[in-house]
Amino acid sequence: MRDNFLWGGAIAAHQVEGAWNVGGKGVSIADVMTAGTKDKARKITDGILPSEYYPNHDGIDFYGHYKEDVKLFAEMGFKCLRTSIAWTRIFPNGDEVEPNEEGLKFYDELFDELLRYGIEPVITLAHFEMPYHLVKEYGGWRNRRLIDFFKRFAITVMERYKDKVKYWLTFNEINNQRILDNPIYSWTNSGIIYTDNETKLETMYQAVHYQFVASAWVVKEGKKINPDFQIGCVLAATPNYPLTSDPADILLAQKEDDQQLFFTDVHVRGHYPKRFVKEWENKGYHLDMTEEDLKILSEGTVDYIGITYYLSNTVSVRPEAKCLNDVLLGNDTLVENPYVQATEWGWSIDPIGLRYYLNLLNNRYELPIFIVENGFGYADTFENGHVYDKERIEYLQQHIAQMKTAIVEDGVDVIGYTVWGCIDPISFTTGEMKKRYGFIYVDRDNQGNGTLKRYKKDSFEWYQQVIKTNGSNI
Ligand code: BGP
């Protein structure tokens, strides 16, 4: 393991900060998403109804507790913290010309606090929290004007924090919007609420094209602001295994991987893969794509690949295979993998899949990889001020072991590893507090009740050792 390996944790503004209407902040798409559970989908309501609970509103009040929380991260020995800048703190509606100074000051103070402890901020520019005004007035990323709004936001924060932040990520899990059956992904990735009479896939490719252009432009301009910037993309990395050796299953798995890697192909190579250009032609899609756009794509390729890794998928054309029919992942060819266990939320637990995918990405792109999310969502039991989370420790041990093997034996260049939800956040897919990820427990329940007091779980001390020994002692 390299000496400067970036061990740390990851959170996102909308899942922890709260203070949704404080300090001049505007309303984000995440702020209008209601509570859900694993059996009840989240919805967005146009406005904020008193009878509904909007968990992202309050988060865990990281906004008010960040000093206490950063101190705990420092105690664990974090080398970095990945978080996002809420676009709505800087440009409350998204289309203003002047930024909100109070929002900028908040992140100045947060980054200063981190740097005081030697913790490097790793910053995502777009983590599911775009201004709701841009959704309502412009139709989100279906509108080309979003490129300019995003550019203004990105340049404002890159200029402001150029001496405090080196690692940037443009769009979180950009490939998730390919999941068209579960609307939460298109709402949060691209601010799109589909109508019944549109070809969703065509709209999706159009929105993604604008995001690619914006991302490439930000990489290019970011380097002018500070040539030392390292700017990456984020792929939700989910291996697709064929259930059987039936060639039709193999082909299906390959196609699924291709769909997923389409996003990284463009970010890394700076041009569209031929197979997709063919697909658009075959389907008769007409995408708004100029010569200038294509030039920017080729000039703004990423420095590293950020990945989030939680689970693997298994696919099959065989009707007798046990279909998962997973609305979350939105794919009716997904089947149960008899070789892996799953969490209470149905996410397969597959540490070897992490090594497999690191190798796949390394073979394909030969770029540094940053594991910017990996973690275990679990309904922790809180007893007498204590959480014995041995299942979480086991999950992380197994994944870190596979990452180490990929680095040491397979020669994959992994530059860092941040555990998702290092302090219990609001779950993104379900909107629950019950699905917890942290080393630090936060006293808050699914209805938003609780003291917000922080408690160290057993995994806190365990991760402290991992970092202290640079991963030797897991
Ligand atoms: C990723 C997101 C995170 C996070 C994580 C866990 O897709 O980038 O924001 O929430 O998944 O998901 P969940 O919170 O639904 O368990």
Automatic annotation (TrEMBL):
Gene3D superfamilies: Glycosidases. It comes from the Bacteria. GO terms for molecular function: 6-phospho-beta-glucosidase activity. PROSITE patterns: GLYCOSYL_HYDROL_F1_1, GLYCOSYL_HYDROL_F1_2. Its EC number is 3.2.1.86. Keywords: Glycosidase, Hydrolase. It is an enzyme of class 3 (hydrolase). Pfam families: Glyco_hydro_1 (PF00232). The active site is at E373. GO terms for cellular component: cytosol. GO terms for biological process: carbohydrate catabolic process. Belongs to the glycosyl hydrolase 1 family. This is Aryl-6-phospho-beta-glucosidase. The gene is bglA.
